[in-house]
Amino acid sequence: MDSLIAASARALAAGDALGALKRVALRDDPPALALRGIAMAQLGEHPRARELLRRAARGFGAREELARARCVVAEAEVALAMRDFGGSPRSLAAASATLEAHADRANALQARLIAARRLLLLGRLDEAAAALARLDPGGLPPSVAAVAELTAAELALRSLRIAAARAALARALEAAGRARVPALLAEVAEARAALDRPAARRLDARGEQPLRLDEVSALLASDALVVDACRRGLGVGAVWRPLARRPVLFALARALAQAWPGDADREALIAYAFRTRRPNETHRARLRVEIGRLRALVKTLAHIEATARGFVLRPLEKRAVVVLAPPIDGDQASLVALLSDGAAWSTSALALALGASQRTVQRALAELEGGGRVRSIGQARSRRWLAPPLAGFTTILLLPTALPID
């Protein structure tokens, strides 16, 4: 490795992308192309970074498999930053195996960390947790250790394990401080700030109250009957009844909970659950059927009794009833939460993360764009979607599969 390549690599490790470019900007040999690609990625020029890394990988050839594997890992990280999940994870796994075989432990861990972060972004929390459990960040460069701890902290936050999240963030801060990379320090600071922002709203007979993540965790662990509009279900403590795939039953449960301790009017229930302004006998018959289904589902937690004007929720053991509402309402709340991270998402990546069809996501994006809540850049397959960061509260509870729903 010549002196300019070595100096450029040291500058990149310290987060000085411009300093790295100054040393290799006019060179087109594979090592220089790879370093230029990484520098462009640090500057946010992701399409250009991907192009340079691909050129570098082709230039190294089949005989330099270690260098090629490093380029594959770097390109995978760029794809992650671009929210492009179209590539196969097999190439990243093969690159990780090659790096392990050549005793490049730091880059092998980076490859596995990228795979875990991809799973986390897609909401596959169990798989992400399994991938992180296989990582051992001990003895690694501080910057890689900081990213690993940040990933662990995000997983803990999305699982509402607040104590574990705080511990991981403390370790991430210590590692980022040793790395002396401003971008890492800023990311850790932003993650810590999320703990102090409102994450949900508590709705009960006393009115509305904003809750932080630790307060949400305490509420879910209490003996109150919680109708959770973030996870779409209801439960008491460890007992959970998912309703994410039964929207009518969830709408009825929420309406009954919001009316508690009083009863909910039949006409209001029909309008809320069936979204009609002109109820007829068919709707009233359907309401009786759906109430019967909900009554059977929650019989170990509460009774649902008929009254003169409608129905009333009677929790067992005289428990309180609380509605846990997201900080923002609407059918597109999870979509807005994904876009609010400031990254540019493709429609296909959003569909993967939400577990919905691309056509459904396209319709939702069109509605949000019409309301000025999101904007697009590019055309056709290169189109990406952005939304301004949502200041004042955290959207962790709105992210897809933020908590187990089965």
Task: Describe what this molecule looks like in 3D.
With 406 residues, the chain is α+β, with helices and mostly antiparallel strands. The protein folds into 3 domains: 3-194, Serine Threonine Protein Phosphatase 5, Tetratricopeptide repeat (Alpha Horseshoe), CATH 1.25.40.10; 200-325, Winged helix-like DNA-binding domain superfamily/Winged helix DNA-binding domain (Arc Repressor Mutant, subunit A, Orthogonal Bundle); 333-398, Arc Repressor Mutant, subunit A (Orthogonal Bundle), CATH 1.10.10.10. Helix content is 56%, strand content 11%. The protein contains 18 helices and 11 strands. Strands 2-1-9-3-4-5 form a 6-stranded mixed β-sheet, sandwiched between helices. It has a 3-stranded antiparallel β-sheet with strand order 6-8-7. A two-stranded antiparallel sheet has the order 10-11. A hairpin with a 4-residue loop joins strand 3 and strand 4 (233-236). Helix 10 packs antiparallel against helix 11. The longest helix is centred in the middle third of the chain and has 18 residues, at 162-179. It is elongated. Mean pLDDT is 87; it is low at 402-406.
Give a nutshell description of this structure.
The chain is of the alpha+beta class and 406 residues long. Helix content is 56%, strand content 11%.
- The residue ranges in which pLDDT falls below 50 over 5 or more consecutive positions are 402-406
CATH superfamily of the largest domain: Tetratricopeptide repeat domain
How much strand?
A: 5-15%
Across the major sheet, the strand order is 2-1-9-3-4-5
- CATH architecture annotation of the largest domain: Alpha Horseshoe
> What is the C-level CATH assignment of the largest domain?
Mainly Alpha
| CATH topology term of the largest domain | Serine Threonine Protein Phosphatase 5, Tetratricopeptide repeat
Major sheet description: 6 strands, mixed
What's the helix-strand series?
Answer: HHHHHHHHHHHEEHEEEHEHHEEEHHHEE
Given helix and strand content, the structural type is alpha+beta
Number of helices: 18
Rg, Å, rounded: 25 Å
